[in-house]
Design goal:
The protein is an alpha+beta fold and 305 residues long. The protein has nine helices and 14 strands. The structure holds protoporphyrin IX containing FE.
Length: 305
């Protein structure tokens, strides 16, 4: 059994820290990061036991260049590539690929802080910090646009089926991750009447009820990303969180899946206009400013380092 890292499967928490790091390419730094990776799950578990109410969990993942540098003697995750940037008209999904992602989740901001501080202390000069974002639960699990986010996430056993490479395959228990930091244009969004906002998302705002297929605009967010192949839904597990301050804010989007394909196909549907000129109208109100792709190996992989 290739157990997954602790940050992948649990239900939503109230707080998260997203750390994206760049690796220094010298022997000492690479050795430090490999040693860190081996001990990381144990450190998370120790801190969780000290603060059980926090429900602390975390995921450590690597970008394609970092994987090659750190684990050249191991299997390569066959779908791991740098984030694929997309552009269509004025809609842009940039790639700002990093080397290491640490996704910390819990119900206590102080415990998240404690873990991120310990991590950076241990990694020292072997890494540079590219991005650090603190996510928080906003109201009753809403995005800052005011719409509940995460409703249609996979539940129960399906969470593992959606996120983890199955047993028997190379790197079983591992998961592909995509991140994008979005900055919302709230003055523009707030100028849009609520019934139009509901058409943009495809659900009602207050009650969070999905529109019927006939009611849903072809440009609605959930219409664009709801993809099927041979009658089967293409799924991802989202652990996105609102972030920011009074001046700049939005969504730190993060999705886990057993394949990188699902996210890439969904993002294409959001950005690229189809033959009818339809694209995701949510893109009119928010702008992605980062885009990164990673692979989170199983606990067994890290332990064997
Ligand atoms: C600013 C960025 C985004 C915002 C504010 C946002 C917001 C939302 C909201 C409010 C929902 C409906 C409730 C739910 O089921 O969670 C939703 C659903 C969903 N979103 Fe997003 N989203 C964003 C970006 C993305 C991206 C980049 C992807 C994938 C490439 C994505 C994939 C999905 C999926 C798969 C669903 C569920 C659709 C369904 O089956 O009904 N979202 N999103």
């Amino acid at each position: 059994m290739s157990a997954p890292q602790s940050g992948i499967l649990p239900e939503a928490n109230s707080d998260a820290t997203f750390l994206v790091l760049l690796l220094n390419n010298d022997t000492h730094s690479l050795t430090t990061v490999r040693q860190f990776a081996k001990t990381f799950p144990g450190k998370v578990e120790e801190l969780r036991q000290r603060h059980p109410d926090s429900k602390l969990s975390a995921t450590l993942a690597f970008g394609s260049a970092a994987w090659t540098l750190l684990f050249h003697d191991k299997d390569y995750p066959s779908e791991l590539t740098p984030f694929v940037a997309l552009r269509n008209d004025d809609r842009l999904a940039p790639s700002t690929q990093g080397d290491v992602l640490i996704h910390i989740r819990s119900n206590r901001k102080d415990v998240n802080f404690e873990l991120s501080r310990m991590i950076m202390e241990q990694l020292g000069e072997s890494v540079r910090r590219e991005e650090e974002v603190s996510g928080f639960r906003y109201l009753d699990s809403r995005d800052i646009t005011g719409f509940v986010d995460g409703t249609e996430n996979p539940t129960g056993d399906n969470r593992a089926a959606v996120t983890l490479i199955p047993e028997g395959q190379p790197l079983a228990g591992g998961s592909y991750i995509h991140c994008q930091r979005y900055i919302h244009n709230m003055p523009h969004w707030n100028a849009c009447p609520a019934h139009q906002q509901e058409q943009v998302i495809g659900r009602t705002k207050e009650e969070n009820i999905e529109f019927s297929s006939e009611e849903k605009a072809p440009t609605a967010h959930i219409k664009r990303v709801n993809l099927k192949e041979n009658g089967k839904s293409l799924e991802i597990l989202r652990h996105s969180m609102p972030y920011g301050d009074s001046r700049e804010h939005g969504l730190f989007f993060i999705a886990y899946a057993h394949t990188a394909r699902h996210f890439n196909l969904m993002l294409e549907q959001m950005i690229h206009a189809d033959t009818n000129g339809h694209y995701d109208h949510l893109m009119r109100y928010t702008q992605a400013v980062s885009g990164t792709a990673f692979f989170a190996p199983s606990l067994g992989f890290l332990d064997a380092l």
